[in-house]
Amino acid sequence: MAEAARRTSYDPYRNLNYQYDGSAVRIAQEEESLRPRPQVRPRNRELARPKVAVRPAGKVSLFAVTGFAAVAVLAVLILMSYIQLSAISSQVVSLNMEMTQLQSEEATLRARYELAYDLSAIEKAVTSDGSMSRPQMGQMVYVDLTEPDSVVLYHEQQSAGGFLESLEEVVGSVLSYF
Predict the structure, then answer these.
(1) Mean pLDDT over each residue of the chain, to the nearest integer
(2) What is the dihedral of CA 115, 119, 124, 130, to 10 degrees?
């Protein structure tokens, strides 16, 4: 069996027809030269377009048109709000700059005001004509805040008339609420 497989298999070196004879040109044998070669004709395929079922064009939905219109309106509103936001932010920046300028101007005006009035000259002018005098030792009162805070609460004793007065006061406050 192995010999039968060996004989039927193709071995290019054992085939005597294809042995190298020293020339580069192969000599055609009689069988090959007399046999006509078949002509290959190109295939002419007819183009067939597939038939596809096409559905008829549908109508535009009123809800779709309304939805697109709503989206367009919202987009315009968002754009307008961004424009307003940028305008407001530029106004805030300008107001902040104006506030810092006013604060610096306030500081300079306060300094000028304090320098404009000489307190010692005013005191001499008022005390010289007698309209104002220095306080005497008996007029000065010193408060001692070194002791801890304490509170004394005095209660008035309520009589029967006081109870009626307080009841009238409560009723009056309730009626004034409504």
Answers:
(1) 78
(2) 130
Positive or negative torsion for Cα 71, 72, 78, 82: positive
Q: Tell me the DSSP string of 81-109.
A: HHHHHHHHHHHHHHHHHHHHHHHHHHHHH
pLDDT digits (tens, 9 = 90+) for 8-63: 566 555 555 555 555 555 555 555 556 667 777 777 777 777 787 888 888 889 99
Measured in Å, how far apart are the chain's first and last C-alpha atoms?
A: 124
Encoding tokens for residue 157?
A: 């004793």
**Tokens read off for 177:** 């609420």
Q: How many Å apart are CA 103 and CA 97, to the nearest integer? A: 10
Q: Which residue matches tokens 């040109």? A: 25
Looking at the whole model, is its pTM more than 0.70?
no
Residue 17: partners with Cβ closer than 8 Å, 6 or more residues away: 29
> How far is it between the farthest Cα atoms of the chain?
159
